[in-house]
Design goal:
Helix content: 25-40%
Radius of gyration: 18 Å
Strand order of the largest sheet: 1-2
Shape: rod-shaped
Largest sheet: 2 strands, antiparallel
Length: 62
């Protein structure tokens, strides 16, 4: 959900949410995609959902 939608759903003005974001006092985690401010955790960042990392053992498997 973007910051504007989040502000509307919580009943605060968008400009207030924007000022809290700029001050680092917004009570929810945020991240940016270009100029868009998204509220919540980024999708796909849960290590359990990604799976194990690839193993680099230094062998060339032919």
């Amino acid at each position: 959900m973007n910051l504007k939608e989040w502000a509307a759903s919580t009943g605060i003005a968008y400009i207030t949410a924007r000022r809290q974001y700029a001050a680092g006092t917004l009570p929810v985690p945020t991240y940016r995609i270009g100029r868009l401010i998204m509220v919540g955790e980024p999708v796909g960042t849960d290590p359990a959902s990604i799976g194990p990392p690839p193993v680099a053992d230094g062998h060339d498997h032919d």
